[in-house]
Each structure stands twice: as C-alpha cells, then as structure tokens.
Amino acid sequence: MSVVESASPPPRARGLYVPVLTPFLPDLSVDESRFLDHCRWLLDHGADGLAVFGTTSEANSLGIEEKLDLLALLIEAGIPPERLMPGTGTCAIPDTVRLTRAAVSDGCAGVLMLPPFYYKGISDDGLFASIDAVIQGVGDSRLRIYLYHFPHLSQVPIPAAVIGRLIEAHPETVVGLKDSSGNWDNTRALLEHFPGFSVFPGSEAHLLDALRLGAPGCITATGNVNPMGIKAVIDGWKSPEAEALQTRAGQVRALFSDRPLIPALKAVMAMARDAPTWRLPRPPLLAMDETDGAVLAATLRELGVDLNDAVT
Amino acid sequence: MSVVESASPPPRARGLYVPVLTPFLPDLSVDESRFLDHCRWLLDHGADGLAVFGTTSEANSLGIEEKLDLLALLIEAGIPPERLMPGTGTCAIPDTVRLTRAAVSDGCAGVLMLPPFYYKGISDDGLFASIDAVIQGVGDSRLRIYLYHFPHLSQVPIPAAVIGRLIEAHPETVVGLKDSSGNWDNTRALLEHFPGFSVFPGSEAHLLDALRLGAPGCITATGNVNPMGIKAVIDGWKSPEAEALQTRAGQVRALFSDRPLIPALKAVMAMARDAPTWRLPRPPLLAMDETDGAVLAATLRELGVDLNDAVT
C-alpha cells in the first residue's frame, strides 16, 4: 500500500449533509446549471455539506464518467471540497477506486461508500475484503470513508461485526456510517456500540434521539427541500425548543413516507422553481404525476417550508 | 432514434453459450492470457458462443473500462465476434449504452442485458423505459438484446408483461432472454408464451425439457467445465440417448448445487490447469478452500469430465 501524505486529512463531517437531487434536461442528460444552483442553494440554506451521488441523487443511474465530470464541475465552480461527501461505492472495486481517488485528490471531506451490491448473501470476510481492497487501491492517507448501510436497496447489509473489523483495521480511514436501514434500533445500537464513530441517521425521523446519543448530524434525502428545518434540530437539540423543532421536521418528513421519495422530491423542486424538467428522474424511476406534485408542494407550504427563499 | 445500417444484423444465437469465468492474477487484475486461452478452449470444446461478462464472469466486479478493454482484446485476438454475447447491463443507462455500442460495433451476436438493478420494486413502466432508453441510446439496427432475468441476484425480475411489451415495441431487437430464475415453471411459461423468442434456460438442469419446448440452447455457468457434456444434450436431444445425456449433464451440474458456484468453478479450473491463481475471485467473493476444490475436481473426473483434453 502506497500512502500519499501530500495534504492534511479533512476534519470529521458534522451537521446536515444532503444527498443532492440530480436535475435532468428533457433528453435526460444532467442539467449542470440547475445542479450547481441547487448545490449553492442548499449550502446557503442550512446544509453543512453535500452528499452528492447518493441514492437520492440517482447516482447509480449516472455513468462513471458522468460522476467524474460532475465532481470536477463542482470543484471548478468553487463549491468548497471540504463540504463534499460524494457517493463512490459501485459494484466493482476498480470503478469505486477510480471515483474515490478523484474525491480524495479533490480534497473532499470524505466519501459515502456502498458495498459492492450485485452479489447477494456475501460473507463478512468477503464484505471486509471488498472495503479493504478499495482502501488499499486508493492508497491515500487522506481518505475518509463513511460506510453506506442501505439494506433495502443494496440488499447487502453491513453488519456490526464487519464495521468493527474495518474500524480496527483502518481506524483513521473508516470513520463513520450512514444508516439508511430505517430501523431506529439499528441506528441506536451502532451509536451505543461504536462511540467516536460518526453514525449519521439516514433520515431526520429520529434525529433528536440520535443527536442525544452522540450522532454528528444526519444525511437525509428530505434535506433537499427542508434543509433549514432539519438544520434547526441539529443546532437546537439542547435548547428548550428541541422537541418542537423535531416535531416540525418530522411532519415534513412524514409527507414523503408513503410517496415514491425521489420523484416526490423532484416534483416539489419543479413546483418551487417553476421548472417542469426538475420533475424528471432517469429510468427505472418515473416522474410523479403533476397533480400529486402540486398537492405535495402546497402541503409543504402549509407546513411553513418555503423553497423560494433566496433562490440563488 | 438514429439507426445505423452499416452492416447486416447477426443471426439468432443458438446452442451452448458459456458465461466465461474471468481469471485473475495475484494482484486481482485480469489474467488476459488465461482468459483468452479459456475462451479458445471453450470454443474448441463444445461452446457455440461466449457470454463473456456474465454473472459467472464476475462482470459486475469488473470496471467499465476493463470490460471495454477485454472485449477489444478478444476481437483483436481473433475470437469471432459472431460467437460473442457480452453482458452489458449495468445500473446506469449511459454505461450500458457505452458497453452495448462497443459490442454492436464489434459485430457481436448480441448482448445479454441485466436491467438496472440498484433501485428495487420498480414499476413495469420504469423497467420498460429503461430497456427502451438503452435501445434508443445505442441507435443501431444491428443490436440484438437477450434480456437477463436473474431475480435472485438482480432483485429486479423481468415480468412476462414487460417482455411482451418490449417484443412488441422492438421485435427485431429484443429477441431473447436468459432465464436464471432457477424456476423451471417460469422457463416453461416463457417458452410457451413467446414462441419464436429465444428463451435460454440459465442452467442445464432442465435442458432437455426446454429443447423439446423450442429453446435454442442454454447459457450456463457449468459450461465452463463441462461444455462437451452440455453440448451433447443440445446436439442429441432428438436421439435415443437424449435422456441419458441429460442425466449425465445433470449429474455434473448437481455437484455445484450446494457449493458457491463461481469459487467452485474456479477451483476446478485451478486443479485442471495446475494454476493456483485460477482459484481467485474478486471480493466480495472469496476463493474456495483448496481441499474442497480438489475433492470437487476428483469427483468431476469420476463422472468422466476431463478438462485436460486438448488444452490450447
């Protein structure tokens, strides 16, 4: 393993990280201009960082080259790399290494890493070997990995035993995890079991509880439309208003619980920005019905969520 | 859709197609020399075609660039493209289009196409739109798609309703399917429901039954080690020996049914070629124990399977 020591490692990620939605043009190529606008709007409205290329970003519907190009675009546009946590995990170690190397060399705060997710029922040893091989392949001491546990979609869970082994083998590198299991018992167990390890809940549904157990923040899809509401919980968790702030954020989140999450978020963006193309996901996802989107956007406004505040 | 008409379309694939194992060097890069040797050995020993970059090939553990490079290697080495059916389906339409275009422009017989497999629980409309978008993106009338139905690993089944819609929309392009469901009832239903559509069972377990219902052959992992035995069933299915040939092929297949398939096949290759590195898969898969591999290879020899015949 060749370790590069060319720059100081990034500080640990904290606060609200948003898996940034990826807007498309009518031909389903990436709308780079709207993507940049949305990134800037998020950073101006409560997001501490951008987990670009997450599930909500439809990262796995983007080609490897597209992701490399978009990351370069963000850096060239002046988005501070220390506020970026790109998703870089693919099925194949070479592609994961390639994306991860780009993120590290750009100075990103860290990477959010899905395990290889094609083969199912893999062993703990095989899962450990996969992440270990990526770390060896990247070979850069600045690398900070936040594991991405999303068993519902990846169908490859990251068990606590593997997390423990990775922390032991790479204590400076494997520093955190996003728990998108939707299972609060799992999040709580990880927070209690691995103190000092940055466990980000993948939703704000139990954010206050998580913060009280030491979570550094959260990484959540609905941060795309309610960044200020979620950030308020993180900033105010020790205040007398903490429960009320959590309740409000939870109400917004609940609006999306029985809707297809990505199409619903995009429909809200389309209404808020008066930009119909914002509705478009890439197949296999399909756009939400316009009427449903309008109802959702109106309900959000009733809850006090205003996406038109200071659009950049 | 811009359609290129630069060459005649390939004939429909028939016979035994083998999802070629991908051998690695100790550093887990592809052992190109052994890969080529194995491809040639298969074509000399019963394989009608090579379904390179299938599940058994660990295609999803190979980077996009690696697959493009390996395909170029095969063509340059003189492997006839009309005997190639590369797997080209990835999670992302741009990568799938890129790989598929390369295969079409090389003159391959067809491509074996997984649907996008990251998002789960997708709609029939979304699945149809995905394959349709790839066809539009490739934009070449020579394209022949064999859909790849492998619900256990992809977790994205291809329902009969979607197959029917794809055939109707693209009758010249969507010409077949590999059914790796392991569910004979599904294979039979597809053969009966879509006459003229090339339904390849993904295993030789029910090969004779499938041939009798019009299957054009099969695409099977164990073709890597028993190509002649499986080819004999295809060639002899109308002969008096048909049942005996099926029984023999089935006995070989059964050896792998309670073993991890890819590591077991690689262990057999390592014994047969006296090449320990043949054992190595890429993570998340792990190599089979050497003792287990030796037992398996010995049992294969007892069944009359001889991989040392005329190694090229």
UniProtKB/TrEMBL annotation, chains A, B:
Q: Which domain of life is it from?
A: Bacteria
Keyword annotations from UniProtKB, A to Z:
Lyase
SUPFAM superfamilies reported in the protein's UniProt record: Aldolase
Q: What is its EC number?
A: 4.3.3.7
InterPro entries documented for this protein: Aldolase_TIM, DapA-like
Q: Which CDD domains match?
A: DHDPS-like
Q: Which Pfam families match?
A: DHDPS
Residues that hold pyruvate according to the record: 56, 219
Write out the catalytic residues in the record: 148 (proton donor/acceptor), 178 (schiff-base intermediate with substrate)
Name the Gene Ontology molecular function terms of this record: 4-hydroxy-tetrahydrodipicolinate synthase activity
For this chain, the family text in UniProt reads: Belongs to the DapA family.
What's this protein's name?
A: 4-hydroxy-tetrahydrodipicolinate synthase
